[in-house]
């Protein structure tokens, strides 16, 4: 299978054979393959993915590069970070068979983009001839001693976080517009922050639910005299588990800074976050009928942790809405505070 067919199958590109055009799905850019240079650019783009193993999300075609007061278009820019803020490789493509002078001009063009973006490498190609360079900031005009036999291949991150992110992106890679609204939603920082809180909360909830089921016999032996006296049922344990899960989520976020926050909330915000995590599950649990929380139902369940997990998962959409709102308020207040601080500095001057 050729790279084009593989890229189509992997939903990286979309080939319109009738119009002889190619659409780069991640960038949502369509180019005509009637232009020989575009064919070289396409093959180089696919080579970066399948020969050099760079993630498609870090490769931008026809990327605008700011050069002084003007902007010019680099054929391909490869970035070293997922946010595409740090250019790593500049690639200039020319149609096959160009003259040596045109090829040299393309090399100089690549270096001018690298100088403007602080990229580390320049690759110039016409599909047959290739020139690879390391960019030396202290000697930006060097073209001999910094010439390479090839550009560096991508060194893949082997962490679990990266693997999850890679599979998620692969899931959303599809034909243009089909999952665009959902993709845009997952790219929103507010949604990602709220989703991170909710996901961590569910993780703690699952752990505590499993522990509760495992140690329930011992717990019941210690408290069985109180069950009929105070009308205790499994909803009580459910509420304790959810309270512990909410507290653990916030404590972990505070201590380890595990969740990527746009701002650093104060104590009030942390308390509100805990409340937003706990109240929805408490409310949903109270709406479940008594038949759900009794002994017979608990004994008949094949997976007894579901007596605690199912009501909590039902509350997840409500949690997400409340968390998005709260994080938005926290960010808004932070920005407003920053503007006030800046305004006071201006007045003092």
TrEMBL record:
Membrane-spanning segments: 190-208, 236-256, 268-285, 305-330
Keyword Transmembrane helix: yes
Pfam families: HSDR_N_2
Keywords on record: Membrane, Transmembrane, Transmembrane helix
Domain Type I restriction enzyme R protein N-terminal stretches: 36-152
KW Membrane (keyword) present: yes
Stated name of the protein: Type I restriction enzyme R protein N-terminal domain-containing protein
